[in-house]
Each structure stands twice: as structure tokens, then as C-alpha cells.
Amino acid sequence: MINLSLTLYGKIPKKAKILATKEIAHYFKKDMKKFLPSQKFIEENENGIIFELTYTQPKEILPFIKKWLPNLIILSPNELNEELKKDLEKYLLY
Questions:
Q1: What is the side-by-side strand order in the sheet with 72-76?
Q2: What whole-number distance in Å separates Cα of residue 7 and Cα of residue 11?
Q3: How far apart are CA 23 and CA 37, in angstroms?
């Protein structure tokens, strides 16, 4: 679940496009219950389901994305994907 306490009020929200791979796509179908309040279905294709999340800082949505690894893939923005990679690299150093 998104941590609304981490929402930065007064900051312009950003949008992230996420791919739910075929293995978990059925959980993200258009008519399914949303995991996050800002979750918006975009499309279903041969790779899975693309949806959008709105956030004001990466801490709001990265924990959710990490729970579903490796089956959630950040399509955009690239800086969010880079933040995730840094977190994973840090983790692997331990």
C-alpha cells in the first residue's frame, strides 16, 4: 500500500508508468481492485499490463514496486528506475 504519510504536500506530483509482466498481470487488470489510490490502468498488451502511479517522492511507491520484483518494471521516468537500481545495488553489497 502507498504510504500517504510520505506524500509531499504542495509538491507537483509525478507520474510513473509501470509494466506488470504476464506472470502477475491478472492482478492489475482494469476491473480489479486497485492496490494504490493513484493507480490508473493504461493498457494490456502481449507483455502484460501497463499502469500509472502518481507520486511526489520515490519513497511513496518504491516499496510497493519492490514487493512485486521482478515482475513490476518501471518504464518511466528513468530517474525513478535509477533510484530503484541504486537501492538494489546497496542491498546486494551487504
A1: 40-45, 48-55, 14-21, 72-76
A2: 9
A3: 23
pTM of the model: 0.88
Rounded CA separation 3/90 (Å): 22
User: What grid cell was written down for 39?
Assistant: 493507480
- pLDDT at 5 (0 to 100): 58
Task: Give the whole-angstrom CA distance, residue 55 versus residue 46.
Answer: 27
| pLDDT at residue 2 in the model | 44
Query: What are the boundaries of each domain within the chain?
Result: 4-93
Q: Are 21 and 47 in contact (CB under 8 A)?
A: yes
The pLDDT tens digits for 31-60 are 999 999 999 999 999 999 999 999 999 999
